């Protein structure tokens, strides 16, 4: 962190064109934004730039248009949202990144915002094209990366652009990096990591890394089914990942070597269908039609006890199929316990991943966590110890 160039409040920006790369990749249905979390998080920073009379150029992507103009992936709904919610005038530009675009950025008045159309409508963005990156850099005088969640990608508006313009990390990017360091370098022990998701193979690196950093590794969600089966439990019709036995054995052996305790569910809530009602089952009473869709009451109690004895908690992945409220009990219970302890017992709590954050937002407890990250893959890769291209590009040489 020490050699990372971070934007400072005392940097003179009055009248200067500030390019801010954001991640406004929000879910949109029928031109309406379904979840504004990622926009809400960056609003205070953009408003602070407006107050300081900067000329603000916003770049973001939405979805995966693969270098083609896809009308459903336009940033126009986001433009309408920003127009209503930011304190300054917001303009929209949907042309090419050329001299006209540069002219549009220069015509901005101090305190105005110019949002560019989906940067991934240009194939040069994902190709990390040097000429395209240089054209982007000509839109401003200073570049700020406030898209930590995209910084594991080598793309022009995140990576190559920094070759041509004075570049900094933004305050949210800084907070993301600091929160990772609270788990890896500056950790307050005991550390407990709660990991969900469906596939063990996609999380093997993070599980291996966390077994070296944590005292407790709690496996929940559909991923836990594989661990239960490995232990000889009949998991019925539950979601499983084929051929995961070798991966699980490796994680268990590594955890034992690192003196990290692995905790898996000891009871569950099931149904014969995903949209069904919940039926409580002990592990011994599971039958062939049962689909495990949430952790049971005894598992919740066990996890709550572990959280009570922890000083740092990292949580990534819901405990069950929370989209059906009948199977959201485990996720909500974990969220409430972590929030309660953060609020009253000075627990350091870091939550990563869009699904987990979405589940927490449903409880209204989001303000009680030390840090909520929607960064997903970038957060996990950084936690694994990988240097992200977008972060490396911001380091002082």
Summarize the topology.
Layout: E1 17-22, E2 28-29, E3 32-33, H1 37-51, E4 55-59, H2 76-85, E5 90-93, H3 99-106, E6 113-116, H4 123-126, H5 130-137, E7 142-146, E8 166-169, H6 171-184, E9 191-195, H7 204-213, E10 216-219, H8 223-230, H9 245-257, E11 261-263, E12 267-271, E13 279-282, E14 291-295, H10 297-308, E15 312-316, H11 329-345, E16 348-352, H12 354-363, E17 371-373, H13 377-383, H14 389-392
Parallel strand pairs: 1-4, 1-7, 4-6, 5-6, 7-8, 9-10, 9-15, 10-11, 15-16, 16-17
Antiparallel strand pairs: 2-3, 12-13, 12-14
Written account of the structure:
By secondary structure, the chain is an alpha/beta fold. It folds into 2 domains: 17-171, Phosphoglycerate kinase, N-terminal domain (Rossmann fold, 3-Layer(aba) Sandwich); 178-383, 3-Layer(aba) Sandwich (Rossmann fold), CATH 3.40.50.1260. It has 14 helices and 17 strands. The protein has helices spanning 37-51, 76-85, 99-106, 123-126, 130-137, 171-184, 204-213, 223-230, 245-257, 297-308, 329-345, 354-363, 377-383, 389-392, and strands spanning 17-22, 28-29, 32-33, 55-59, 90-93, 113-116, 142-146, 166-169, 191-195, 216-219, 261-263, 267-271, 279-282, 291-295, 312-316, 348-352, 371-373. The chain has a 6-stranded parallel beta sheet with strand order 5-6-4-1-7-8, with helices on both faces. A 6-stranded parallel beta sheet has the order 11-10-9-15-16-17, with helices on both faces. It has a 3-stranded antiparallel beta sheet with strand order 13-12-14. Helix 11 (329-345) packs across helix 12. The longest helix is centred in the C-terminal third of the chain and has 17 residues, at 329-345. It is elongated. The two termini are 13 Å apart.
């Amino acid at each position: 962190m020490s050699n990372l160039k971070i934007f400072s409040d005392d940097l003179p920006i009055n009248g200067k064109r500030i390019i801010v790369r954001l991640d406004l990749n929000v879910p949109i249905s029928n031109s309406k934004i379904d979840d504004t979390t990622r926009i809400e998080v960056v609003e205070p920073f953009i408003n602070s730039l407006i107050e300081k009379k900067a000329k603000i150029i916003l770049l973001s992507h939405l979805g995966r248009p693969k270098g083609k103009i896809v009308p459903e992936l336009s940033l126009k709904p986001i433009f309408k949202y920003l127009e209503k919610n930011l304190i300054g005038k917001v303009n929209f530009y949907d042309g090419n990144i050329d001299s006209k675009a540069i002219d549009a950025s220069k015509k901005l008045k101090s305190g105005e915002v110019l949002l560019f159309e989906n940067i991934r409508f240009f194939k040069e963005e994902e190709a990390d094209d040097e000429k395209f990156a240089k054209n982007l850099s000509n839109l401003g005088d200073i570049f700020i990366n406030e898209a930590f969640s995209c910084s594991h990608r080598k793309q022009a508006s995140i990576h190559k652009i920094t070759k041509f313009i004075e570049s900094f990390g933004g305050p949210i990017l800084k907070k993301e990096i600091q929160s990772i360091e609270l788990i890896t370098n500056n950790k307050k022990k005991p550390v407990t990591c709660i990991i969900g998701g469906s596939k063990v193979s996609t999380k093997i690196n993070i599980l291996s890394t966390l077994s070296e950093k944590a005292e407790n590794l709690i496996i929940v969600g559909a991923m836990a089914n594989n661990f239960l089966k490995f232990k000889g439990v009949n998991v019925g019709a539950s979601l499983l990942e084929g051929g995961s036995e070798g991966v699980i054995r490796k994680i268990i052996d590594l955890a034992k070597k690192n003196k990290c305790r692995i905790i898996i569910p000891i009871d569950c809530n099931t149904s014969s269908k995903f949209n069904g009602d919940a039926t409580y089952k002990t592990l011994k009473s599971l039958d062939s039609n049962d689909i495990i869709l949430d952790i049971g009451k005894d598992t919740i109690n066990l996890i709550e006890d572990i959280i009570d004895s922890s000083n740092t908690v990292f949580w990534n992945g819901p405990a069950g199929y929370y989209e059906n409220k009948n199977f959201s009990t485990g996720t909500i219970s974990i969220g409430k316990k972590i929030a309660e302890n953060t609020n009253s017992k000075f627990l350091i709590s870091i939550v990563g991943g869009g699904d987990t954050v979405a589940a927490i937002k449903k409880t209204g407890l989001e303000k009680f966590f030390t840090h909520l990250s929607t960064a997903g893959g970038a957060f996990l890769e950084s936690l694994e110890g990988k240097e992200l291209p977008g972060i490396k590009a911001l380091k002082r040489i």
